[in-house]
Amino acid sequence: MRISHKKYDVFISFRGEDTRTNFTAQLHQALSDRSIESYIDYNLVKGDEVGPALTKAIDDSHMSLVVFSKDYATSKWCLDELVHILQCRKLNGHVVIPVFYNIDPSHVRHQKESYQMAFARFERELAHSKSHVDKVSEWKAALNLAANISGWDSRKYRDDTQVIGNIVEDVLQKLALMYPNELKDIVKVDENSEHIELLLKTIPRIGIWGMSGIGKTTIAKQMFSKNFAHYDNVCFLEKISEDSEKFGPIYVCNQLLRELLKREITASDVHGLHTFITRRLFRKKVFIVLDDVNNTTQLDDLCRVLGDLGPNSRLIITTRDRHTLGGKVDEIYEVKTWKLRDSLKLFSLRAFKQDHPLKGYERVSERAVECAGGVPLALEVLGSHFHSRKQEFWESELNLYENKGEAFPDIQKVLRTSYNGLSWRQKEMFLDIAFFFKGENKDIVTRILDAFGFNATSGIEILEDKTLITISNNDRIQMHDLLQKMAFDIVREEYNDRGKRSRLRDAKDICDVLGNNKGSDAIEGIIFDLSQKVDIHVQADAFKLMHKLRFLKFHIPKGKKKLGTVHLPENIMPFFDKLKYLE
């Protein structure tokens, strides 16, 4: 746990006479059991000056747990501690977690009951001095501010053990967010994080959109860890799509409420507490991250629970599907791929455990980074894959990827999440674009896909929303190389027999199928690159079984020379019942 420059993880502020021997002692032990370094006043070395030692301990802690009990306000010492803790919160982002031990938070917030009695005594004792009167006002303001921060109310739990368990988990989560993120250390603040940091200053609701593996969650965590200490209620809800699919939407909504309200939530509470929740959250300054929301219904349910947030609150939503964000955010930011310099640093950290390649590995490292295409996930996977491997292994694997189009399984597993969410027709369109139409004019591709029987206009828009394709400034359809490799893998996995795959584009595969009459009615499209050095004579029977062939193209890529020759029979058209495109 100890990976930071501060001496303590947690400072515990409490009234010793109320809680030292029971609740606070149990809390301290529970924190210690989870390797969380906490400071309480009986850690003072004999002879230390109490005031300076305590303020130094607060300064040297990541966060403070303030245990408000019945007699907390009777101690000037505790109140001075609280004032200093809140000053650290304001100036340094020091995290404050209030714990209301057997006391109503409103009594702390508005100084009622025992708190009212304590301040009545202070006001009598200190009435003769203006500076002391100001001190009392300062204490009251501190209590009001602290009691408005999201915390834990012990009265809502069956016993101390249960609430302490929840507090410890809360501390662990917040510490995990506070510790420096490794990616951030490598690249400092990349242009994505820098841009979103600027947006947060003025934009209440921000959508972070991008392909799988591009770093959306990492960026959201960076923003959350940097800013959450300045908000009253905070929540970072991860893997929403996965949890919603596993446990249902009500479970996810309950998780959101549990994080924000710090109380156990039943299924009926989502509707029963709706008005109370929305009113309460509107008055608060809250920071919420909804991570990996890729379904409009999911987001509708969560936004309905939250209602309208106050003007000083912030909401970040990450998604692979731009359409999901419609009407829910004020601005959508598309995450960019990483630049070469930062990509090489991240890759090197994984491959060599340092931020640059080992001597002699510079060229193969550049090739690997090029294969990753600026996608952080791919950089990490490839770096780990090549760690401690000899150059011969690097060369062999990179040749497979560059020449055969074979992708790395761990990368593909993540990338396929968007593809798996498509309808059958959308999947077919995606595969067609990957095989035949990457870099082609959008209008021309639309007409061809329409001729194939697809609803191309809406289909292309959906693929773009899901970041499976992009449309360039000159209106050409583009696709990340990793996604294209994924498409090749999907078709390759259809059958080991090349003649039974739906699409062909590899010259050797095509020569094998056409040259040896291995074609079948599974083949729907062939694109043959004539810049490859081949000479093949195709018999008429080679196309005899290709009843579903709808796309056939022999071409020379721009900037390349014709090196290949294909000899076709004179009349092949009678074989093509469904052919829509021939070039």
TrEMBL record:
One function term, GO molecular function aspect: DNA binding
Keyword Repeat part of the UniProt annotation: yes
GO annotation terms (biological process): defense response; signal transduction
Domain TIR: start-end pairs: 6-175
UniProtKB keywords: DNA-binding, Leucine-rich repeat, NAD, Plant defense, Repeat
Keyword NAD: yes
InterPro entries (alphabetical): Apaf_helical, Disease_R_plants, NB-ARC, P-loop_NTPase, TIR_dom, Toll_tir_struct_dom_sf, WH_DNA-bd_sf, WHD_ROQ1-like
Protein name, as recorded: Putative TIR domain, winged helix-turn-helix DNA-binding domain-containing protein
Species of the source: Medicago truncatula (Barrel medic)
